[in-house]
From TrEMBL:
This is Dihydrolipoamide dehydrogenase. It comes from the Bacteria. The keyword NAD applies. It comes from Ornithinimicrobium humiphilum. Binds 1 FAD per subunit. Its cofactor is FAD.
Length: 488
């Protein structure tokens, strides 16, 4: 299709925004991206990419400790039994920030190469698909609520109004903070502030055991600091497969993390070089640093959205349909500001769908049933499709087979002690509708199940495909084989 005479303005240069911009440029539209922090968004600069890089560093260190268990010792270690490995957090963070900046630059070059104009500044929606831009604004993501048009620009900064056939709002979200736990950027931190640390916290208290809290608690434990994880629910990762979350919680405890379940933080205060977290039941937890991981709020305030006819939900998220349309004609939205499913992959897909739909290209509506996602703990938890809860609560008529990895020959060789694979197949048709993998590199192992779900393969098609011997994927095949129903 040819969208040569169409103009597209994108507010926000994260995965939702920049992927849409690339898609629109490919279709021939004239595209402008307005970004107030940096291209790549929070995903690249402070959240997804840096946290995965930190976890990769922690996992790398963990391999030194694990070496002992398979009979490998470092003769130079100064303390007997110690593998002599320490993390220099200033160096670790400097490398991670460089990596993030490099990725941001790559995105900028890609956008430039396809003719997308990028404006450094803050955007605000006006009625009738117009966008007001204050140029030169530069906001650093930190967890503080940014002024809609930024603080960090001089009053004479150029303001202009752009008109577009399609406006895409992809402004993301920021860390939720509590009035009783105000981040100071030194010892009470949001996840966007940890990259300024120059020393490893002695004792980090992580508040919130959702995906962000669990991943970062795992990372800092691996880097060598004492970690207390405060979980308001019965177990960590309350939204995830219960069997998987239980494995990860057990591993956390075994490695020395203190996990406090059914413990809700009421507030955090700083006392000199310590922080004191008060729980709602009156208990107090002391640490050297506190990390708030208590959820996010969408960047949708004071952006002119409702005045321009864009409906927001009670949580402040932009309401969209499955092709990313908002309630205002010609205005679309993608990513975390919509609250549909806060993943970089979903943001990117929503953005691509939006421009394809608006510019008249062929498009399939967003299908969340096929989204695979991964929690980068050790072991990792990867999931796709329907969940165990969907089956247990009667929403899907399916069966599950779960196989522990301890019986898998490759897992034994690699000293994998925890984890399992689980596959869900619909009763009768035996179509694979979902699965869970808990193992090292589960993020890679989930792909065959995702392929089966997306292409509606049945358990016989899946299990009759050769797997390598010995391999972890052998357990996937075996689980599917065990799901085979014998015809009456
Ligand atoms: C710690 C952490 C780890 C994560 N890890 C993963 C992971 O491993 N895998 C995964 O898939 N997802 C992960 N996520 C989720 C992922 O980061 C988000 O889903 C993703 O960032 C959403 O992309 P987005 O484009 O909607 O928003 P963002 O990436 O937040 O980008 C939005 C951009 O809009 C800009 N902006 C906002 N308002 C304006 C304005 N008025 N004018 C101009 N610009 C504006 C912001 O500066 C920002 O750059 C993680 C999240 C967190 C918190
Ligand atoms: N690997 C990944 O793909 C990845 C990583 C991080 C985040 N994400 C995305 O971001 C989403 C949000 O995750 P999140 O963990 O940032 O937020 P979340 O809202 O899922 O979890 C926050 C947790 O904090 C708890 N909490 C809130 N107030 C508390 C208090 N006062 N004391 C103790 N606990 C409290 C909540 O009960 C909740 O369990 C995820 O669902 C995921 O989609 C993805």
């Amino acid at each position: 299709m040819n969208a040569v005479n169409k103009s597209v303005v994108v507010i926000g240069g994260g995965p939702g925004g920049y992927e849409a911009a690339l898609g629109a440029a490919q279709l021939g539209a004239e595209v402008t991206v307005i970004e107030r922090s940096g291209l790549g968004g929070a995903a690249v600069l402070t959240d997804c990419v840096p946290s995965k890089a930190l976890i990769a560093t922690a996992d790398f260190m963990d391999r030194f400790s694990a070496a002992k268990r398979i009979g490998v010792h470092f003769d130079g270690a100064q303390v007997p039994g110690d593998q002599g490995v320490t993390a220099h957090v200033a160096d670790v963070n400097a490398r991670i920030m460089e990596l993030a900046q490099a990725q941001s630059r790559d995105i900028g070059e890609r956008l430039e190469s396809v003719g997308v104009e990028v404006i450094q500044g803050a955007g605000r929606l006006l009625p009738d698909r117009r966008v007001e831009v204050v140029e030169g604004v530069h906001e650093v993501n930190s967890g503080e609520e940014p002024a809609p048009h930024g603080r960090d620009h001089d009053e004479a900064a150029a303001t202009r109004v752009l008109e577009a056939d399609l406006v895409l709002v992809a402004t993301g979200a920021r860390p939720r903070v509590m009035d009783t736990a105000v981040p100071d950027g030194e010892r009470i931190l949001t996840w966007q502030q940890i990259w300024n640390l120059t020393e490893l916290p002695e004792h980090l208290v992580v508040i919130g055991s959702g995906v962000t809290g669990a991943e970062l608690a795992h990372a800092y434990l691996g880097l060598g600091c004492a970690v207390t994880l405060i979980s308001s629910r019965d177990r960590v990762l309350p939204g995830e497969d219960a069997d998987a979350a239980n494995v990860v919680e057990e591993v956390f405890r075994r490695r020395g993390m203190t996990v406090l379940n059914r413990s809700r933080a009421a507030g955090v205060r700083r006392e000199g070089d310590t922080v004191v977290v008060t729980l709602e039941d009156g208990r107090q937890v002391e640490g050297s640093h506190a990390l708030l991981a208590v959820g996010s709020i969408p960047n949708t305030t004071d952006m002119g959205l409702e005045e321009a006819g864009v409906r927001l939900s009670r949580s402040g998220h932009i309401e969209v349909d499955r092709v990313s349309r908002t309630s205002a004609p010609g205005v679309y939205a993608a990513g975390d500001c919509t609250g549909v499913l806060p993943l970089a992959s979903v943001a990117a897909m929503q953005g691509r769908i939006a421009v394809a739909h608006a510019l008249g290209d062929a498009v399939a509506p967003l299908s969340l049933g096929k989204v695979s996602s991964n929690i980068f703990t050790d072991p990792e938890i990867a999931t796709v499709g329907v969940s165990q809860a969907d089956i247990d609560e009667g929403r899907v008529d399916a069966r599950a087979v779960m196989l522990p990895l301890t019986k898998n020959p490759r897992a034994k060789m690699q000293n994998v002690q925890d984890g399992f694979v689980k596959i869900f197949a619909r009763k009768g048709s035996q179509t694979i509708v979902g699965g869970v993998v808990v193992s090292p590199r589960a993020s890679e192992l989930i792909f065959p199940i995702a392929l089966a779900v997306a292409n509606r393969l049945n358990v016989d098609q899946f299990s009759s495909t050769f797997t390598v011997y010995p391999s972890m994927s052998g357990s996937l095949s075996e689980a599917a084989r065990q799901l085979h129903e014998i015809a009456d």
